[in-house]
# Entry
Amino acid sequence: MPSSTNKPSLRQILFGSPIRAFGVVSLVFLVSLAIAPAKNHFSEWRHYQNQYLSLIQGRGDAVTLRRHFRGGIQQNWLPELGVVDRCTTCHVGQKEATLTDVGLQPFRRHPVMAHNVDQFGCVMCHRGQGAATTVEEAHSSTLAWEQPILPARYTEASCGQCHRAPLAETPELNLGRNLLAREGCVHCHTIKLPGGDTMKATDDPPSLSHIADKTTREWIYAWLKDPQAYAASATMPNFKLNDDNVRDISAFLVANSTPVAGDAATVSAKPGDTTAGASLYGESFCASCHAVQNAAGNVVGGNVGPELTRVGNKVKPEWLTAWLRNPRVYDPPTGMPHYRFNDQQISTLGTFLLAKSDSDFLANVHLDPATPEQITHGKTLVQEYGCAACHEINGIKRPENFAPELTRIGSKPITQLIFLPGMQHALPNYISAKIRQPRSFGSSLKMPQYTFTTQQIDALTTALLSRTDRAQTIPPALAVTATPESTYQPAGKAGQLMSDLACFSCHKINGRGGDMAPDLSWEGTSVQRAWLQQFLKNPNTLRPALIRRMPKFNLADSEINLLTDYIMTVYQTPAFDRDSIDSSGDSRVQVEQGRQLFYSKYACQSCHIVDPKADKGYVGPTLTQVGSRLTAAWVYHWLKDPQSLRPGTVEPNRNMSDDDARALTAFLMSQRSGGRPGNKAAKVQGERVPRLEARK
Amino acid sequence: MMRQTILVGLIVICAALWGCTRKNTSAVGPTPTAFGTALVESSGGKQIGGVGTTLPQPVVVQVNDDQGNGVAGAPVEFTGPRGVSFDPASGVTDSSGQFTTNVMLGSMAGRYQLGASTHTKAQKSVDLKLEEIALGDQERLGAHLDETYCNRCHNPESTPERVSNYDNLEVKPHSFTEGDTLNKMSDADLTAIISHGGPALNKSPLMPPYGYTLKKMEIQALLAYIRMVSDPPYRPAGTYYVQK
# Structure
């Protein structure tokens, strides 16, 4: 560089003389000293704080708002929870009750919530980086930070970190958790719960060990190709198997099936006509548990048992006959009750069910006899696809950890995920895409295709996002535990009878059982013996609008007595004695006073019917014969505090005085079926409905 | 050397700009083949969803010609406030003249004004306004409580699972969306009637009291929900509005 000899170089200009050098160095020094304050001055959060101050200026509530305002970086440190939050540095107005009209972030008032920010901080619920002081770093996942903010629609996931029991405020989380258990996710994916338990499946996939007794290879073939083509509400997902694989799996399952003694039967009764079948199906309230698709395409009925729209395509007639006679022969722990049908009823119901078929369904399935190679290949496939994770299959062990464990999926670092092209790099997007279309991540993946709705996918994603590191490690004292699962089993002969009738499929007793029908834990305190006997004999109802009701089991008198005795003696509340109030001596005056209270002060007729001609209320059960059904003590205590006897009941607590409650009890107990209770019990049949809270 | 650096810098800037512009142009959908003169809502307005969730039903609008017949292949575009997203946000109408989009609400509770627009052959824009409601956590709890406790009397419509009790009541309650009536009641009055029943406001005892059944925060949640869904919208008197 010859030119440098003529002109002074940059170095010479700056550091040519000691004085000059000193000047330059101190200038640099001063500038660098000024960097920090300048950065501070021009910082994002200061910008927001200034914006806030000008926003509140001129408002009527400016004085109060200004008094509450604290400038500078605000920090909330909660060592117990491991939270360091500076979010309120920018979210200045989040506690201001009067800012309801401000929609602009970061100044919006925080919506009312169950928790106090000072106690829980922000990141507990919203995630993100609490300690950051720029929008980008606090909300998004940047180089140094892993945890981005949780999109609002998944916020309930954060509740699930501490709250292990369902909450009224978290419908989405509750649904998601139910789906994880009900749709079979946890058969393959282990989800460990903080207490040391694992999440349990609540569905009950059938055993395939004896499947050839129940159905044909053709049906298995069609089902495996597309379970939803057989039944729209089928929970089994589609494994997207090709024709050869389906052929071989069906060959293996049939060849591998062993017979069960007594699960095929014939009855000599004449085949029933369809009308008789339909009414028996109705009377037996099969629809409480089983759905059928109607002509409009809607699946109507319960989802406790399988859908029956095309059951005639599926089951073998002899198997169905034996099953209707006693389902426990084929499947001892089944949730289906053992109805005591006689041969004629079995024949009638059987004919009715077998007619539920679709002639096209198996029309295109033609299978040649299976070859040994096909059977062997079928077995390999059954092992590869993990069928035994859900179903019991002869000679195949249930695979352990068949699919990735999801215990801490909600804290999975993004760097460990593989995203599809075009997908936003965020954990919720990854999880929901995996659920929506698992095989889009690779055609060789084994996870099957479900038919979830968007809402269900959101709910499942929420439930999975709640399985974080924090959920596993939170101190037990801070967690809200779920009631442990009850394994209650009633003792003795009555207990056996209750299992045979599958009472627990619908009723809850001492914490165990379904929620379709009322909890029976205190039934013995609540009802009168004669009524209960009559109800078990003939559980008709005066409320035809309900779809789900107590079925008639055709019980023998000895069975009815056994059950009644057991319920009356064992299922008592410890809170009071069933005989503690005697209403037999109630005066006319007291009854009349109760009537006044019923119709005027408390206006009970808005929900209940006492006089079928005048009253119309339809929310609660009919009370026309309540004096023959309930005990006076139960009525009295119910009036005083309904929720203490049945938590969650919609009957409001009226904070009634003792006198009012007693007078109302007198009035209600005077509503009888005529004469004294007991001797006219035959007339009170089924006045009370096992009430289904309609919107479960 | 300096020149080289500048050159490299320029190239980089150009490349970046080109990348940006390319991204923008690639978002254009199918080209319209026909044009209508009117835009009407077919379904999907006035829905209630949760914050940040996709509305239960898609929003469907229809482009019509002068005779009121649907026009196929006409352009439609949706716009909404920040946080709202549409899938798809724009496109052309189907064979019956309709355009369907799934709407995901933003993360803030409140009312969302959505706009749909098409344009005529003469490039004149035709607009349509729709409104959707996003419930926050508090209002969602309110909605749940309404379902459990209130709905059977206050909502005249029956479903197969829930028979309405409305027709059975001698004094008719109002549906919670009836803003004309409910907006006139103060927060204190609503809280009083919910907590202490009809007689608290000299109304019918057919309205039961819930003050001993529901917690205070649950009654607040019901109140927030009632305010949020009212039609016309509830605008409380005496609050301070930001000066525009």
